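Box 3.1 A note on notation
Throughout this textbook, protein chains are presented in two layers. The first layer is the amino acid sequence; the second is a token string describing backbone geometry. Keep the layers aligned when reading.
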Amino acid sequence: MTESSMKKLASTLLDAITDKDPLVQEQVCSALCSLGEVRPVETLRACEEYLRQHDKLVHPYRAAVLRAMERVLSSRASELDKDTASTIILLASNEMTKTKDLVWDWQQAASGVLVAVGKQFISKVMEELLRRLHPGTLPHCAVLHTLASLSVANAFGVVPFLPSVLSSLLPVLGMAKQDTVRVAFCSGMVAHACIPAPWKAEAGGLLDPGSRGCSEPRSSH
């Protein structure tokens, strides 16, 4: 299949994702995933371009495209070049934080894309998430959720960024008043705490050198 033919096929599928029949939507997503198995970079770029050019597309359809992207990335992230990875990371980050309101299906789908890319390009993903952390301001719940998920999916890769993450989050912890924000903070802190202590020791700085990973029992002495 030529590149132009592949792009036309992807565009046709993406245009059909707005069908009101959920079964059709699922079939379109499955077809996109199948296409992504064969031509991952071209498929992902087509999805990114579609979302970028259809800014008024409502969030349920945006979430469907993002979920298809995540499924492709889950098995094909290693085939991305750096430019494509950067483009997808920026798209997912923007999608995830486009609204301050909690629109979980959309934000979770975008977060899933970031986590999938982060298994292969952790530095780029963490740098983008750190860009979303502003001094003295509560971060977006979806950013906290993504940081927690990355700590599980790629714990070793997250370690070098822990001092920067904690130096941004700890000062604003007391500002968390809403339950959703508190839950997001707790999820992040638990995930960071579960990173093995020897890995965290490498990060130094703000990390407690006496802390232990979740799998390490404390001494009874």
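The two ends are 67 Å apart (CA to CA). Residues 203-221 have pLDDT under 50 and may be disordered.
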